[in-house]
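quick one: fe (iii) ion bound model?
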Amino acid sequence: MLEIHIIKALTDNYIYLLRNKEKNITSVIDPGDSKPVINFLNDKGWKLDQIINTHHHHDHIGGNSELLNIYKSKLIAPSYDKERILNADIYASDNEEISIAGINTKVIFTPGHTLGHICLYMEEEKCLFSGDTLFYLGCGRVFEGTMKQMWQSLLKLRSLPDETMVYCGHEYTMSNANFCNYIDPNNKLFKKVYSKIKENTEKSLPSIPFKLGTDKQTNPFLRADQLEFLKSINMEGTDPVNVFEAIRLQKNNF
Ligand code: ZN
Ligand code: FE
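yep, here:
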């Protein structure tokens, strides 16, 4: 059984500390800062075997070098980022099966936010680490790729099973929820989700993880090809890429 520990870092980043007790393997995903990870590991008396980065942004790799120095961990980075994340032991490519914390993990290439971004899917654990591609009720900004690339990346994630629990790179949920409330106010399922999010936010609890199946029905960025949603935003008959672009640009300025 895999333990997933959520570590808050920087302003609103999440670092995920994975612990496989049976195999005695500890891994970290996207250590944007080393200190909270070191504190956590010291507290538990664990060493760090692996570091995995979803993409090259500093708030996801900033803790790499210090952690590598201390623990001599193995580093796994996206194959596209060879020149931007140096000295990785494994450069992971699309569809590749890798082992993270002793668990079989499928690498899903999701360009858009950055050109090399990868997500990590563990079928047996029913979980997805989505970095800055998919957020709860939202998605990452499109910095390096095209809108079409980002939409296609989101479609790949949407094709995963409904019961998948998603662990994303940032706590942007409240801001995303406010945008949903604005763009899709009559979505009944969203209203249920929203009250739970509000409750957690008031207690400063993470909104993570979230269920992919629910997000498929509530996240506007996963619904750019769904008739019911298109009707409600008066974009019926519009190409999904153009719909996605329109709502992404709206959210950027929201
Ligand atoms: Zn990023
Ligand atoms: Fe980020």
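The pocket of zinc ion (ligand 1) is lined by residues 55, 57, 60, 113, 132 (CB under 6 Å).
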